[in-house]
Amino acid sequence: METILGVKGTDFIILASDTMRNKSAMWLDDEVRKTHRISDYCMMSTAGDGGDCLKFSDFILRNMDLYKITNGYDLTVRGAVHFIRRHLSAYLKSDCTFQVSLLVGGYDLTSGPELHYIDYLGNSVPVRYGGHGAAMNFCTPILEEFYKPDMDTQAAYDVIKKCVIELYKRFVINLRNIDLFLISKNGITKMNSINLESLRGDILAGPKRRILNTK
């Protein structure tokens, strides 16, 4: 019932994730952090089983810190993606499997912004936009229609906002709050969260109606 989204712009990446933890139809918590900092220019968002996400995220973050301490520099975005997917696929051969899907986004100082889609089997592919979770049934058509490769930060934020509005209208679970992070050459910046209060006017207004000319 959770949702993580990612959008790649001309020189930035935006990662968005809900902060809810639920079990079946029961709401348990509304302050769960699902987007984690890997380095000064890279973050990852996780979706899946709550315990698996927590344990696997901690494993990845600890190893990223160890790599930096050992070598004196961070892994690149592609290096982090390779490390994550390699361990996800390796765990499939053991008794300890993780039901975790991820989006990894970052800014490489040589190649620019990168967004990678990783599923729970360890398959990875670079994408311009994407996400995980049941709500992607509603978000995918919106991203396909409104995404533009040359969009700026505000335009990308507005596209994600359209997705969240649609979720509030049509999704059976109220996601309550969406955290957003901007990753660019300037590092990581937390953007204004999207929640029911900030969207109340847009939701109540509803879609614009077409006025027919009866003359």
TrEMBL record:
Keywords: Cytoplasm, Nucleus, Proteasome. The keyword Cytoplasm applies. InterPro entries: Ntn_hydrolases_N, Proteasome_beta2, Proteasome_bsu_CS, Proteasome_sua/b, Proteasome_suB-type. It holds the Pfam family Proteasome. GO terms for cellular component: cytosol; nucleus; proteasome core complex, beta-subunit complex. Component of the proteasome, a multicatalytic proteinase complex which is characterized by its ability to cleave peptides with Arg, Phe, Tyr, Leu, and Glu adjacent to the leaving group at neutral or slightly basic pH. The proteasome has an ATP-dependent proteolytic activity. Non-catalytic component of the proteasome, a multicatalytic proteinase complex which is characterized by its ability to cleave peptides with Arg, Phe, Tyr, Leu, and Glu adjacent to the leaving group at neutral or slightly basic pH. The proteasome has an ATP-dependent proteolytic activity. Component of the proteasome complex. The 26S proteasome consists of a 20S proteasome core and two 19S regulatory subunits. The 20S proteasome core is composed of 28 subunits that are arranged in four stacked rings, resulting in a barrel-shaped structure. The two end rings are each formed by seven alpha subunits, and the two central rings are each formed by seven beta subunits. The catalytic chamber with the active sites is on the inside of the barrel. This is Proteasome subunit beta.
